Amino acid sequence: MKNVGVLLSGCGVYDGTEIHESVITLLALDRNGVAAICMAPDMDQHHVVNHLTGQTSEEKRNVLVESARIARGEIMDVKRVRTADLDALIMPGGFGAAKNLSDFAIKGNEAEVHPEVRRIIAEMADAGKPIGAICISPAVLAKVLEDRHPQVTIGNDLGTAEAIEAMGGRHTVCDVTDIHVDFENKLVTTPAYMIGPDISKVAEGIEKLINKILEMI
After folding, report:
1. Measured in whole angstroms, how far is the alpha carbon of residue 77 from the centre of its chain?
2. DSSP state of 33
């Protein structure tokens, strides 16, 4: 059985992982007979957002603990995950990718990436293992792999695309139901809720991404 890592960043679109994107990813992997290895960094979230009101709150939440909600408790601290145990890596989106896995939402092209997140991405790329990134998470790939000039898509958001290119990436405009493939670096990206809004269309793009990643293993 193939083992595919799923890198989460909390639970909830505004301060963690986009839940729909995560569930669609896990479902697509399971339907293909693939074991999903969920992981997240053990760290405090950048902040906590009330998803009913959109307002930030004073409470503290842990990224690994919150991600465990999506993984139904079966999740590992990313620092314990070794590239040798994975055949591929998938990164769902949500603002957690740009606030917790990195600080791209705050610093743009000057962003820093969590050291263990940087490690697992760089090691997978060095090993020639495919990486899939959904929604805003291609920005994290662009930062970690900036020396490789990765080709990615986040859909059609001009500001984000410009930041990706400032980090050394190459951006391609893409529809929500489609994917972009960087064959040289073995990267597959799709816009998902960067465009949205229909979950069925988001699912179509993510399922194409999963299928292509599995082909590339």
Report:
1. 16
2. T
Distance CA 43, CA 62 (A): 6
Q: Taking the CA of residue 57 as centre, how many other CA atoms within 13 Å lie in the half-sphere pointing to its CB?
A: 12
Give the whole-angstrom CA distance, residue 135 versus residue 174: 11
In angstroms, rounded to a whole number, what is the distance separating the alpha carbons of residues 182 and 192?
18
For the chain, percent helix, then strand, then coil, each to nearest 5?
A: 40, 20, 40
Length of the chain: 217
Q: What is the DSSP letter of 132?
A: E
Radius of gyration of the chain (CA): 15
What is the number of other CB atoms lying within 10 angstroms of the CB of residue 73?
8
Q: Which residues are known catalytic residues? A: 135
- The 10s digit of each residue's pLDDT in 122-165 is 999 999 999 999 999 999 999 999 999 999 999 999 999 999 99
Euclidean distance between CA atoms 201 and 197, whole angstroms = 8
Tokens of 3: 């083992």
CA gap 148, 193 in Å, rounded:
26
Three-state DSSP class for 77? strand
Q: How far apart are CA 87 and CA 4, in angstroms?
A: 6
